[in-house]
Amino acid sequence: MSTEIAELLTQAGPFLTGALGAYGTAVLTRAEDAAADATANTGRRLLQRVWRRGDAAERAELEEAVADAETDLASATAALRLHLRAALHEDAELRSEITDLIAGQTASAITITALGERSIAAHTIGTAITGDGHHTGS
User: Fold this and answer.
1) 14: part of which helix (H) or strand (E)?
2) pTM above 0.70, yes or no
3) What is the pLDDT of residue 81?
4) Which burial class, exposed, middle or buried, applies to 66 when counting CB atoms under 10 A from its CB (0-12, 13-18, 19+)?
5) Cα–Cα dist 67/62, whole Å
């Protein structure tokens, strides 16, 4: 299980950073903004789920880590990862929710990039023939 949580934390990292950068301390209470970056919205939903499940002390700790993001984003993200790790260890249902949330985001966030002269890129390629002087037999 600890390998699963470590992988989940690695996947959650960009979402946490995106949410903190976009929303700051409002990340825990802000409603989804259709115009906001999908990464930031996913991070916001992730943090709100953790925040809602916590008791008063856990919520206060999470709020403090989020507030710290305004002065030190890297340290705040690290603190949030630790908080998230503890929450995931304690709550299998939360672990499932976060896994589904991240899986849904990464499945819909396909980025295709082609770099270099005459390079090609596509989500799915059946046959691709490139280069000078290649004949296809016709």
Assistant:
1) helix 2-23
2) no
3) 86
4) buried
5) 9
